[in-house]
Each structure stands twice: as C-alpha cells, then as structure tokens.
Write a structure and sequence with these properties.
single chain, alpha+beta, 8-stranded mixed β-barrel, 3-stranded antiparallel β-sheet, 5 helices, 15 strands
Length: about 260
C-alpha cells in the first residue's frame, strides 16, 4: 500500500485534481505497521496501527468499519437521515451535511478510506467530473488515473426480513421520475490538506452524489454535476431513524469494463 499524500497545486484551477491523488497496491494486504501510511514532512499520514484489529479469519476492524478481505467487502452501521427532499450527500457523519443527506453514520471518513485501501483499492479521479477549460489543467487532470469502482448497498430489517437496496436506487431524478440507473461508485479519496488534516474528516462527507472532491466516494455519473434534480426516493427508503448497514463491495477486475460503461 502506498501512502496517502498531499499534492501542492501549481495553480488554483488545478487544486482539486492535484490534491486528489494517492495510490494503493492491487491486492488485499496483510495488516502490519509496515503497510500503513507513514508520517513525514511530505504530508504522508499515519493512521494509528492500534485501530486496525484482527477479529477473525480474513476479518479486520477499522474503527466502526468491518473489513472482510476474503469477500472484498466492508460494512458499517448507519441510520436513515432523510427519505425525501433534495439530496447532495448519500452518507455523512453526524456533523456533516445532514440537511441534504440520505444516511448518516458515526464512521470516521479516514477509517473508511483506510478500509478501502486494505481491500487493495486505489483513490483517483472521478471520470464524470467536468474537465477544466484550461488546456494545461485538462492535461494534468487526464494524468490522474480513475479511482477504483465499488458497489454500495443499504440493508435493513423490516418485519423480521432483511431488505437491501442499491445506493443509487435510493435517489430519484426529478427529470425522469425514475431512480438513478444502476452504477458503481468511485473511490476519489478526498485529500490531506497542507495542515495535515484529512478533508473528508473536516466536511463529514463519506459518499456524495453531487460531485465533491472532498468526499471519500462519489457518483461517477454526469447527473452529479447538478444539485437541482436529485431527491431521496421515498418509494423505496424506510422511515427516518431506521438503523441500516452499509455494505461496500470491491468490483473484480473482470467486472470493471462492464461497470465503467454505466459510469458515464
């Protein structure tokens, strides 16, 4: 696993793209202090190794996030925050943008980022972000590889039975009166600012549908360029306050091609 790091932009227009990039190995890793990001003068961040707890065969816990290395899946608890109204955030923290978020969770965004790295995923650019008009900025953006794609599901119990909903289907497009099309989500990974703080920890955004460079996960659809048309899908969401489990599954290399066709 390569460390999370900051990039200093060459100009203001490039800030979002230069500060995004960090890398990870291509396979799930064993959890040792040697595989964790280190702290140094270049802005590398070292999460506390004591937070990585082995709880079973191929199972680890990072804060409130459970990592299943064998299934290449992570899960964590949350609650339904809104089931109607305009939505820009799918999952936020308790101090995040709860006025426009479907779910909220007590998970720390940095813990979610680390859990995704432990599955061998890598953060990067969202291919649906609007390229900048400046030719130099556009060229620099194209040098940043796309982030890994994941499937995200929302699960809860009702009348003694488990229900499951793909995260994108929790959102409704007012222009079509239909839920968003089936799509993966992209690991953009926020960034570490020059003060050493992980930005997603500051904003409280774990997963966004309105494009947000500060989020951990983002929507790889052009629909994310507007905040005027996406609302919570009351047809399928449970009542506010309902406990849920968020499940994030890494996509296999074989599925990337098919999923990327939808992520446009």
């Amino acid at each position: 696993m390569r460390p999370l790091r900051t990039k200093r932009p060459k100009c203001a227009m490039l800030m979002w793209f230069f500060l995004l990039w960090s890398g990870a190995s291509t396979h799930a890793v064993s959890v040792t202090s040697a595989t964790l990001p280190r702290g140094d003068q270049q802005g590398y961040l070292r999460p506390d190794p004591k937070k990585i707890e082995k709880i079973g065969a191929n199972l680890y816990r990072v804060g409130a996030v459970t990592v299943d290395a064998a299934a290449r899946q992570i899960r964590f608890p949350g609650w339904v925050n809104l089931n109607n109204g305009l939505i820009e955030v799918v999952i936020c923290t308790g101090y995040g943008k709860r006025h426009e978020s479907v779910l909220w969770s007590k998970v720390r965004p940095m813990d979610l980022h680390l859990a995704l790295l432990l599955l061998g995923l890598h953060p990067g650019i969202n291919p649906a972000w609007r390229p900048p008009e400046d030719p130099k900025a556009r060229a620099e953006m194209l040098q940043v590889p796309p982030g890994s794609l994941v499937d995200v599901s929302i699960c809860w119990s009702a009348a003694g039975r488990e229900k499951s909903l793909r995260a994108e289907h929790a959102l409704l497009d007012l222009r079509t009166s239909q839920s968003l099309p089936r799509t993966p989500w992209v690991f953009v990974g926020s960034y570490v600012n020059n003060g050493g703080a992980y930005e997603a920890d500051q904003t409280g955004s774990l997963m966004t549908n309105y494009h947000d460079v500060y989020s951990v996960l983002d929507l790889p659809l052009e629909a994310g360029r507007s905040d005027d048309y996406t609302v919570a899908n009351r047809r399928v969401l449970p009542e506010r306050g309902t406990p849920v489990e968020i499940r994030i599954r890494a996509l296999s290399d074989e599925s990337h091609g098919a999923e990327k066709k939808n992520a446009k």
